[in-house]
Amino acid sequence: MAKVKVSKKSTRIDMTAMCDVAFLLLSFFIMTATAKQPEPHPVDTPASTVQTKLPEENLATITVGDDKAFFTMMSPEVRRGALERISQEYNVTFTDAEYQAFANLQGFGVPLNQLKGLLAMEPSERMEEGLQGGIPFDSVNNQLGSWVEAAREAHKAVLEERMSKGEEGVVFKDLDIAIKGDAEEDYPVIKRIIDILQEQKKNKFFLVTGLRDENF
After folding, report:
1. Considering only CA atoms, which of 147, 107, 99, 141 is closest in space to residue 123?
2. Would you say 113 and 141 are in contact if contact means Cβ atoms under 8 Å apart?
3. pTM for the full model?
4. Cβ-contact 170, 57 below 8 angstroms
5. Which of 61, 113, 135, 175 could make an SS bond with 72 (beta carbons 3.0 to 4.6 A apart)?
6. pLDDT in tens, 112-154
7. CB under 8 Å to 21, separation ≥6 — which residues?
């Protein structure tokens, strides 16, 4: 009896549609992701079980490590406004180019008399290890307190301007402050930072921590 021949079907699978979807998803995640900004002084935060997410906008962060304080403002408008107020308070003049450079500078940690030199550097040079020695925050020279107050005032002014233009969804809210302290930092240093905020009646703030693992 003659054998019945079974027709062979192609096993080739057209992956064109799958590749298109994969590249679309990849493009979406790349365009919507927020790149981690370089820090002038990276710190190792303590571990915690709290999982409260930091605000994605309207936030300023005080980073503390090795007895040094650094200040980061997320909004370019707030950064420029804060520098304008600091300029008036300390009677220091900045050029338009320096204002623009500062508006593009997220985090910094130098005394005011060194800020012009920092702004004159290339972005890659500013982040060299040990270059920025921290913002003074002792009881005699509390420049950090001035920066926090100036940032809060600048944030308020930005919101008021947006509200005056009739922008929808704008709600007045004080600038959020986060403290990002190194796990090995001495308690009196962190206490001093908290005191600076409380002196300005800023009693609600975030503490940045890492997430504990299951074996902690």
Report:
1. 107
2. no
3. 0.78
4. no
5. 61
6. 999 999 999 988 888 788 889 999 999 899 999 999 999 999 9
7. none
| Residues 125, 214: Cα–Cα separation, whole Å | 40
CA atoms within 13 A on the CB side of 167: 12
Burial 82-113 (b: 16+ CB within 10 A, else e): bbbbbbeeeeeebeeebbebbbebbbbbbebe
- Retrieve residue 140's tokens: 């005699």
- List, in order, residues 6 or more apart from 91 with CB less than 8 Å away: none
44 contacts 208 by C-beta, under 8 angstroms: no
For residue 108 the two structure tokens come to 């910094």
